[in-house]
Amino acid sequence: MKYFYNFPELPFIDHSVITIGMFDGVHLGHAKVLTECVKIAKLKGIASIVISFSNHPSSYFNPKHDSKNSLLSPDIEKIEWIEKLGIEYLFMIPFDHYIAHLPAESFIEDILLTKFGISDLVLGYDNHFGFQRKGSVDFVNEHYSSKIQAYSIEVAKLDEEIISSSTIKEYVIQGNISKANTMLGRAYSLQGKVIHGNHKGRELGFPTANIELNDTDKLIPGLGVYISTLKVNDQLVSGLTNIGKRPTLTQDAYISIETHLFDFQEDIYGKEVELYLVDKIREEKKFNSLQELISQISSDVQFAKSQLAKIHITS
Question: What are the Cα distances from residue 77, in Å, to 31, 189, 224, 247?
């Protein structure tokens, strides 16, 4: 897949199938839209194109909006997951004054038709585009049916609940990672680099890999202890992750992400890793003594190993 951060100045391609959206998380609902886009493109032998945004529209409409820790999938992750679904071209356009005020007619005529030779438009059930959200499947089929066929993809649901980025974000914030994972269609993950911490875990007998996130826009799950697996050096290692402020040890002002890896002794400081969260097992809490903390961690490790064995994930 090829990706770009601006629209082409000249006509880019003769014929294409296009979908438009933020696609934060590239969850199961998004996958239905993107898969249909690829399917139509392959049937017609034409290009599949995604037009997305490099910043969330809310950051334009609300300038005071802090994007830190707000996205399920920052750019590098979104690109990866969209590519895996078979899309050929991805345009990650800044959502700015131009895009916010671009009439739907201009979006269709000056961009979709002129630059991309669109023949088919695939949108999610509630997706709109153009100034004041005027552009829709019905709008396109009513005014441009001689040139474009527009399709609306049915809503994706889990247990009668609509799968959406905002819903998944709430589950991630709550720490209900198992529900978030089901809606995503994969384990929620955090990408970053292993850095030196204060080595308190090693002193307690449970050394940890402390992870510094690559992208500060990445949404951090609710504080607590999680069953997890860590991808490092192309291998998966099972572990137990604490996301929190370590109230028993240091009461940090910041949120740390540290993982105790099972039966793993390698030096991975400075390594790029990806942490996959499987399930949350308890809230973070302050213990009355270090011995009480050690006892709880021992119990957490045994429980995590038993749960991972049930789903056939071992280090």
Answer: 14, 10, 24, 31
pLDDT at position 133 is 94
Q: Which residues contact 276 (CB under 8 A, 6 or more apart)?
A: 187, 188, 189, 228, 229, 230, 231, 236
In degrees and rounded to multiples of 5, residue 265 shows phi and psi of -120, 0
DSSP 133: G
Residue 30: pLDDT over 60: yes
Q: How far apart are CA 137 and CA 121, in angstroms?
A: 8
pLDDT mean over 222-244: 95
Task: Give the residue carrying structure tokens 């308890």.
Answer: 282
Average pLDDT, the chain: 92
Q: Which element (helix H / strand E) includes 204? A: helix 200-204
pLDDT in tens, 286-297: 888 888 888 999
Catalytic residue list: 258
Compute the distance between CA of residue 213 and CA of residue 259 in angstroms, rounded to an integer. Answer: 13
Are the C-beta atoms of 85 and 34 separated by less than 8 Å?
Answer: yes
